[in-house]
């Protein structure tokens, strides 16, 4: 104890020096540890780990996009009459007609009747030529001819191999002087037509149509392609007629309308 009392300064200094020596030994390790922590902190800040996104509910966004893609349309012509009052017109019989497309103009035309137009070929007679060979009298009737004279029945004489503006006689069946059949080839289509004395050949070549326009009490019977009709202060050409439809073309602007058979005019 006397030694410590006499030399306690030296003991204390030795302990301090020992502590400093230990600190000097561990200081590089401490510096390395702190540097490593700083590097990890820098990496985490500059390259953070991002967690993958989970399934996101985009229902609201999709509904909003769909709503934007379908603009709201306000009808100020057909349903709203405040800004678009509907005019009316007095018909020929005195009743009032609402001036709408279906009640006035081409859409108000009705096809009340439709009849087919035939090309008819008949074996009318068998005669004998000067040289003694048989000749065949074939009747030709064109209901669809553009002129009334062209619609009358005409007879033509022909032998096997002859050709006219309607057909060519290709062959006969049975005895030449009393054939059971005549085989014809039609010029316009190349189709075969078979004639017998009792059975003519018929083919639909077009149609006529009866038209009516109720707002003006107008009726046009047996109209054909190329005929003109006039109504609602406009003239129209009939450019096509089928079994179920009639096509009208306005002379003023060539705009076309299709009228369906059995369509009744609006009142």
Describe the protein in words.
The protein is of the alpha+beta class and 267 residues long. Among the domains are: 1-46; 114-205. The protein is built from 2 helices and 14 strands. It has helices spanning 2-46, 59-69; strands at 88-90, 96-98, 109-128, 134-142, 154-158, 167-173, 181-186, 192-195, 201-213, 218-223, 228-231, 234-241, 245-250, 256-260. The protein has a 5-stranded antiparallel sheet with strand order 5-4-3-9-10, with no helix packed on it. A 4-stranded antiparallel sheet has the order 11-12-13-14, with no helix packed on it. Strand 11 and strand 12 form a beta hairpin. The longest helix has 45 residues, at 2-46. The N and C termini lie far apart (137 Å). The model is unreliable at 263-267 (pLDDT under 50).
**Overall pLDDT level:** 85
State the helicity in percent bands: 10-25%
Classify the secondary structure makeup into a structural class: alpha+beta
Helix/strand order, N-terminal first: HHEEEEEEEEEEEEEE
Estimate the strand proportion: 35-45%
Oligomer: single chain
Detail the poorly predicted runs: 263-267
Count up the helices.
2
Structure characteristics:
single chain; alpha+beta; four-stranded antiparallel beta sheet; five-stranded antiparallel beta sheet; 21% helix; 14 strands; 2 helices; 267 residues
